[in-house]
Input
Amino acid sequence: MRKRSIAAAGIMVMCLGLMACGSASNTGSSNTATQAASTSSAGYVYTSNGTDIKINDDVNAIVSKLGTPKGGTYEAKSCAFDGMDKFWYYDGFTLQAYQKDGKDVVYSVTFTDDTVKTKEGVKIGDSKDKVTQAYGSSFKENNGQLVYESGNMKLSFGMKDNKVQSVIYELKQ
Output
């Protein structure tokens, strides 16, 4: 199950990376993180290693607290926004940023395996019942995803056979 979840998450992250166009750069280093999630006036908040990660927050301040990711970084000219799309591949999740008003800000946080979970305890591999117990029934079901919206963002749980296949915090557009 874990290998399938990792493969599914990896494919999802690759698809996000393919949305960017232009030249790219990669680097690598190490970091360990603990994760959680909660809601605020800005929507759901993901917490890693005591650092809150909110949609549209300054990503440089977040990365300076989290440290250099073990999986490295990637950047490419954005096709969806002005400037560059940037990715940081931490243990268990990928942080993506885009440029807004000349500043790099958080666009999304994507779980990459079942070693991380939300504050409410939901992780890849959990049941739909666990998601609805933790987050309620106020979701939209869209193309196999349970989508919860709050503030300027959405929290999506990709489902297959009533099991969580992906968890993504992202900007609501």
User: Anything to note?
Assistant: The helical segments are 2-18, 59-66, 128-135. The chain has a mean pLDDT of 81. Residues 2 and 160 are 14 Å apart (CA to CA).
